[in-house]
Amino acid sequence: MKLGLDEHAHLDSPLHHWETRYKLVGLMVLIFAFSFVQDLRLLPAMLVVTFALYSVSRLPLSYLLTRLRAPGFFLLIVAVLLPFLSGSTVILRIGSLALRQEGCLDLLLIVTKFVSILTTGLVLFGTAPFLAIIKAMRALGLPPVLADMTLLSYRYLYEIGDDLETMETAMGLRGFRARRSGRGGHKAMPLLGVLASLAGTILVRSYEQSERVYKAMVLRGYGHSPRPRDEFQACPRDVVGLGGVLVLAAGFVAAEIFFRRFGG
Amino acid sequence: MVSGLSFSYPDKPGVLRDASLEVLPGERVGLIGPNGAGKTSFFLVICGVLKPDGGEILLFGEPMAHGDFRPEIGMVFQNPDDQLFCPSVRDDVAFGPQNLGLLKEEVEARVTEALSLAGMLELAGRPPHHLSGGEKRMVSIAGVLAMHPRLLIYDEPNANLDIRSRRRLIRFLQASKETVLIASHDLELILEVCDRVLLMDEGCIVADGNPRGLMGDVELMEAHGLERPHSLVPHAEPHHEWETRRQGDKKTRRQGDKKTRRQGDKETRSNRKTQP
Amino acid sequence: MHIPDGILPAAVSVAGYATTGAATWYSLRRINRKENPQESIPRASLLTAAFFVASWIHIPIPPTSVHLVLNGLLGAVLGYYAFPAILIGLFFQAVMFQHGGLTTLGVNATVMGVPALLAYHVFRLRNVVVRRGDPGDRPHQVWTGVFGFLAGSGGLGISALMALILLITTVPAHLDVEVERASVYALAVAHIPLMVLEGIFTALVVLFLQRVRPELLED
User: Which residues of B touch A231 (CB under 8 A)?
Assistant: First the structure.
């Protein structure tokens, strides 16, 4: 079962080689800096930085485009509604609909921020194996309970997903199609009942497996001594990279505050 | 050195009833029996994971209580997915040594050693869901080996293995230096690997003896939901090793086992000598 | 309920992380008070993964199909582990599918997780109403179903409400009052059938679990 992780995690680029902890901190700060921006004059700079990052990362463009598709649906709704509903300055009339300036500008702001943040997020999470990212978070202070839960959930996600597919196939072979809408004469309640049993079965099987996993963990000493933190080695380049990105983020924040304070 | 596992206990509605066993170091013991006989529960009690209602366990001379962590005993589970719970092979094999409180370099050394023994070193960086059934099996064994156990328990080790993986497993088991206790439905595997066999049914150990003798006893096997393994069935054309050897051999190799008796059998040939 | 990046002001996102941090801290404290927290970690983790997978089950509602949120069910089954489970689930969704934002991870976790904890307490009320007797008898089943329904629909309802209030109060849009009011009503009304659906589904799953593995529903 494909979860679309780690597809491009092993390419060769400065961003791939940037030590994961520093990358995590640096890019998350940058992402928050982007989200702080409200002034339209900063948008071009945001886009430039974002796409510079993306091209340095050597991630393929197709990757970005496919990832934009799913959330893009939501954006489409916003894109359709906002320009016509928000604001009072009308710039264009199309029949009975009025295109409003504030709405268009709001839309521009939202879309640009969204794309920038998503792209930077892709750079952050797409240039290192998922496992390395979780370990980096643990090294940065994620509580052990959360770290263990994340690792275990991640580990068994694929299997459980495969189980679901197998069960759905088996159901389908016995004539039940869960994804057809309306056809086949399925009445609402029995349909829900079957799907509820499907969900329930997945839960029960996972529960039973978790008991066996727990026994296996105990047998190899789980809980016997504290788990060691992974050691990450940082070199000067990593620190420089972090410094650079933090400066960039600070720049955006400062510019934003400046524009808010002194208008324009 | 006596590594005595001697105990007797009853468990939840008779899952294990007064089961007793003693294993000497270096022995390779097979455990056979129908499903539901209690083999897995038996193992889990020995390992201290399940708490018995009665009886006692002595592991290498030291009593074993519920909840003890004794790295000298290691268990390989029936389903390797239950045991490979870390997101990468290397992390999983390192899990045991880390819990032993070893230093990082020592942990690394043990991981490399265990993976090489299991022949899985190239797969160290992979996530478990990218492995095949046979690979998962060997990695789960490596994970247990990394703790340097002296007694290894295998619960149905060859379930879902293809022929090649099964052969690799058999060779691996034959080469192992530890004391080994294997539960399996694969009677031929037990024949190839073990020098002693126990038959378990309904929570009791019903028979204990030489693999060839015990498993060759048709009446006994069938009384407990099993069959005599193919290679022990005498053939018109003798092609199993023991048959060709028997042709020149006057003695049978049954030792001190009162329960197995050879039945009158239509296929016996005149030049085989039997002993009651 | 998966609020994407780019809409909320940064201050709100940061506040969201703060509330999620607090809720996580609180949940972990309650978890550690149990006698053997380590034992329940594998169970909670695998169930987190299971819920994640279960939320992929489509319920076909012509002309389209719906994914359920299931935070009420999560609360009923996982108890205090529901909050970390939701946090982890949202993290996976944000990173794997870009569903839900990175800046808004905190906000989304609070909006979905806190109602899950409330749903847990609602579901526990069934122990007040019916004594823990034979799980097969009718009153026990009926009450389990009822409280399952309440937990499921409540979980979704409160989440939706919180998300809506948040969006209305913090999104800087220049909507005129009438449009805003109309859209709020429309969204609120649209969620009612969804609440009913979640409630029914949760009740059905809870009854299934009660029959097959009642320990999953015990504390």
Answer: 104
